[in-house]
Amino acid sequence: MADALPALDLGPELTIVRSAALRERLLAHLGQHAGALRLDLSSASDVDSASVQLLLALRRSLAERGEALHITGLSRAAGDALAVYGLQALFAPAD
Amino acid sequence: MPMNDDDAEIIAAAREGFLEEAGDMLRQFEQALLVMETSPQDTENLNAAFRAAHTIKGTAGLFGFDAVVAFTHNVESVMDALREGTLAPSDTLSALLLQSRDQMEHLLGEVTTGTSDPSVAADSQRLGAALAALLQPTAGASATSPGALPAQASDGQAAEAGPGRWHLCLRFGPDALRSGLDPLAFIRYLGHLGQVVDMHTWHERVPPLAELDAEGCHLGMDLGLLTTADRATIAAVFEFAEDDCDIHILAPDASAAEFQALLDSVNATPAEREAHAALLQAVGCALHAPPAPPPAVTAVTAADEQVITPLERRDNGTGGGTDRRAAEAGRRSNDAKFIRVRADKLDKLIDLIGELVIASSGAQLAAQQEGAPRVAEATLRIHDLVQEARDGALGLRMVPIGETFQRFQRVVRDVSKALGKDVALQITGGDTEMDKSMVETIADPLMHLVRNSLDHGVEPAAERLAQGKPGQGQLALHAYHESGSIVIEVSDDGRGLDRGRILRKAIERGLIGADQPLSDNEVHQLICHPGFSTAEQVTDISGRGVGMDVVKRNIEALRGQMHLVSEAGRGTTTQIRLPLTLAIIDGFLCEVNGVHYVVPLEAVVECIETPGEFHAEPGRISGYFHLRGEMLPYLDLARYFGQASGQDGRRSLLLVRTSTSKVGLIVDRLQGEHQTVIKPLAPMFRDVQGIAGSTILGSGEVALILDVPALVDQCIRTSLGSRLRSAAALLTSRD
Asked: Could you give the CA distance from residue B612 to residue B609 in angstroms, rounded to a whole number?
């Protein structure tokens, strides 16, 4: 897969404290870039339910315009959180 | 989350609220335990006890009061077992639970004071172990109800029972995340209880990014939990999530009807229900049953209840309600009819209204003096309204005395058990209202009276039977309103006061002369004398001789009176008469040397002309006079307060009474009844004897409120020495 853009990195802290800001950032990103979204979660060290929910919403937004969400990297914390929810299949790293 | 000053303040306030609520809960808990002793099958009552313990534990957990949580958990488990019928109520059990209640109170007390006493911790250990031991033997016999396995089953038992698959269905509310509840944490924690299987997250309700409330919660999940833990242990994981999460816990042997009820309850749309049903089927839950019959059928109600009860789930508006839930809702809306108000705010309001009463009297007076009829009419109307407002404001402070009475259920139970007596407590007039501050102050004197009755009054059963009385003694607390006062009576059907013994003791103690003739009533009042106690055996309960005089003093401090009526062999009744409120009195206004004095109206017996004895010796402060065959002391208020009266003309005698005697007060002028708002005297005047307070008249002048009991005491003391002399003078004047 050709990397038109570097994957989006949301930083280490994916918690409710930042979830409103992250949502803005993702919305802005979706507004500027058509096509599939590549997301790098390899630096996420702190992941809570708000962020899992954010990923679900992001995935749904992309799906609504017929695009996919590709996770390029998954930190242990992020992987754990998704596994607890039984959602790892939805967000399996694609690359 | 950063903690700033505001947060700290909110938490401090919430902590206070918790402690107050916990106090209420403890009272409810105790109440329910006492009811349990008499009607052990009352499930609603057991539920109330469980709820109380559960609430204390839950909120204590929020504040991290671990000692309270750990101990209360045991109590809660036992209550749960009682509720489910796996544990049978017994005397030892209720005694243990009552002790546990006291222990919870001690632990909460430690939270309040911020101390920690190793002996309290040791008690927690001991009682906790005793409670846990109660649950152990039921493990073997729990085949009928797997939900009641002991919370801490030993390893051996766990292996024997084998883990069951519990089904948990969680629907987090929109505010869960904001409230700091992370579903992740709960599920991870469940991993400590057993193995989480078949995890399914319902994310269909998560909207696209553009519509997402990033801090809201749209998640729900269904999961299986393989564990040997019991329902209470699993439910405890979600302890603090109840408000923000719809929680359903289904036992491994849950019936099809229970699952159907679950489907009905959590799913808003048919599509959701279908998906949910498919999932349940996929994970092997038994759904093969006809659709749930209407909730009126007992089987379903019971099933539904099992889903709901353990967590006292609040109904979020989905699904059908059962009677239980309706009752719950009723209870809540009942709660909502009350608001908590700080006592000092209320006092301030009452104070203001008191000022308003005074100002309105002033306005009325001014209008009369100005001779402006229209203004006078308007002020009259205002005056009426102010009076109504005053009554209403005072009513706010009024609370029924029943709550105080109820506390004595426990006292009577404990004390009569300790004494080996069988005593029933009867409470009547519990809804009689009185001022809140007085309710609090009256509790101690009442405690003394009740203990006295139990200890000295009611005889042991054998003695009672020998006298042809029923073996069970009766103790009654009765309250009622009578002409502006509240009357509280403590009566027993015991042996009554022993006149001979009281007299012997009084003579022995030098309280009275050996051959002094005394009426029954006078003899009875002797037991209120400081240092008087006739109990031959000093017991734990009473009999230290600090009883009745303290009671009497406390009651007089409330401007009340105490009166004893007793009949040998038939019992004793102690009557306490108290004013309805401490803030306002109906007074009788009089004038001495240009100063206004108010005498509480209930103390006034009659007004008469100054007697001949007074005219015979006008220079005396006090003396004696005859009234219809009774010899009574009098006190010249003018001289008593330091200055002979300047009044040349007729003066009057105001006959006042206390609980024990009558005294005549000589005043210059009688001015009639006057409603008085009592204001305390400035600290400077605290030591002035005979003055209880002050008030402001409509004219703006200050009037002093007389402390009648103190005046009477003073009067009797100063006139005792002159009694003989006065009697002698009387005899000579007759000769």
From this structure: 9
